[in-house]
Design goal:
With 107 residues, this protein is of the alpha+beta class. The protein is built from two helices and eight strands, in the order ββββαββαββ. The protein starts with 10 loop residues before the first strand and ends with a strand. It has two domains: 11-58, no CATH class; 67-106, no CATH class. The protein is elongated, with a radius of gyration of 19 Å. Strands 1-2-3-4 form a four-stranded antiparallel sheet. Bound molecules: zinc ion. Zinc ion binds next to loops.
Amino acid sequence: MTKKKLEEKPLVCPECDGDAEPMMINVSGLGVTGWRCKCGYEMLSPGELEKAYLFLQAQKHEKVKISKRGNSYMITIPKAIADAIGIENLDMAEVYLKDRKTIIVGI
Ligand SMILES: [Zn+2]
């Protein structure tokens, strides 16, 4: 993953007319570039807002079926997750058992 470039210029805060400074903003675990004012108001550019939206959509829990294929079992990765992190056909993933009820899939 490449390091994100911060926005460079302050913006005027629409809430208090103060200077909103460019910085990384944490949206539910995803770091996106944006601006934050001393009053707490935060702004994201449209591109970063879309990334944050896709990420939040992908955090919703979905039920998926487990199906058997040969001696292995398959699950599908919901489109919201694929869209949020850019999974493509034939990408490799790492799978392991975390505990009796949790399978971790890392890409
Ligand atoms: Zn403000």
